[in-house]
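pinned: reference chain
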Amino acid sequence: MKKTNLENLTEGSILKALIKLSIPLILTNLLQTAYNLTDTFWVGRLGSVAVAAVSLSFPIVFIIISLGSGMAIAGSILVAKRKGAKDLDAVAHVASQTFYSVFFISILLSAIGYFLSPVLVGIMKVKPDVHQEAVAYLKITFLGLSASFVYLTFQSLMRSIGKVKLPFYIVLATVLLNLILDPLFIFGYKNIIPAYGVKGAALATVGTQILSAIIALHYMFKGTQGIQISLSDYKPDFELIKNLFKLGLPVSIEQVSRALGIFMMVMLVTHFGTMVLASYGIGSRILSFVIIPGFGLSMATSTLVGQNIGAKAYYRVKKTLELSLAIAFGGLSLIGILMFIFAVDVAKFFIPNDLATIKESALFIKCLSLSFGFLGILLVLMGAFRGAGKTKISMVLALLSVWILRFPLAYYLGYHTDLKQFGIWISYPITNILTAIAGLLILAKYKWFKNVS
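pinned: its structure tokens
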């Protein structure tokens, strides 16, 4: 590997390291959200059929990506440990094997997604015009899936060695580019670019993904940013790939279960009518923004835990966890208090003229806000377990949260008591609190990861 100015996260201030890692990660996640909102904004100018087509395509793509992303995260876990142990040759080898493994999986998933697009959309039982547009959007999206996985792998590997600014700059550039390309490909430009409609949004997205992948490949092959892959290292290391699969499969299951869980919760809420569904949509959007800082801190914690376990600096693992848990609980609790106080005002921002929806949305937001601090604890714990290579525990916590607690509880309270939709609303704080407590009990068993090698 070429010499480069590598981040050393096994020494120095832990608080400074957490801040230095978390802020770019949080900003990157915010930009990814803006990326999706840009697509929705421009497609919305085409009408409800176009919006419906793109909206139902998102969860399908997310599930397919979740199936393959586990290997990339597994590679980042191993790279973080090798980096902490200062074994740079092993860092290069693991990075190369991770990249080639994920790339092969992405080609396979791309082909499956492309040919099964009509079937996947058909499961949704949508109208023929929406079905046609959604299939066209999905096929183009799946053609560019490998580029998306290349960048996902690059981003995960860079994060594992503490390099988070470069991925942020790349995402910033692609978001700005997508802002320009979306209207050009959707509506066309004079006689130069045809108006592709919904397919134009997919073309713009795939175009920016390919650009991101090219930039990522440049840096990974050049090796000046701490991660270097080599063409000569393409021969499969089956023992390492087996380890990657062992670590990555629980991560994939975790992410797929969350995606399916979101879909099933929507199914529950739909039963109570349009107003309640709209209220759920507003509350869910608030939740998706609030947890972005939690996800950023979770990923930063994962990197620090992984590197310090690799360096056998277990006292720093303990300090990292203590600090991360305190920041997550305190920071998200403060946000929760503010959301509880201003719940009505927040709801009015999204839907200013519908009093019934404002009232119901505010109630859901208040219920969510009660457990933001505990949700922060859960996210940090799951990041820490991943960093330690205990991906099965992270998976179990996700399954406990979504399928063992939230969905059954929401179904029972919503459908078999007089609480109705309020029963679904309160299933969120109950689940977050119980799962966070379960995570802390599991953590206590591992004695701050001192028994992890």
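why pinned: The CA atoms of residues 244 and 250 lie 11 Å apart. Residues 23-236 form one domain.
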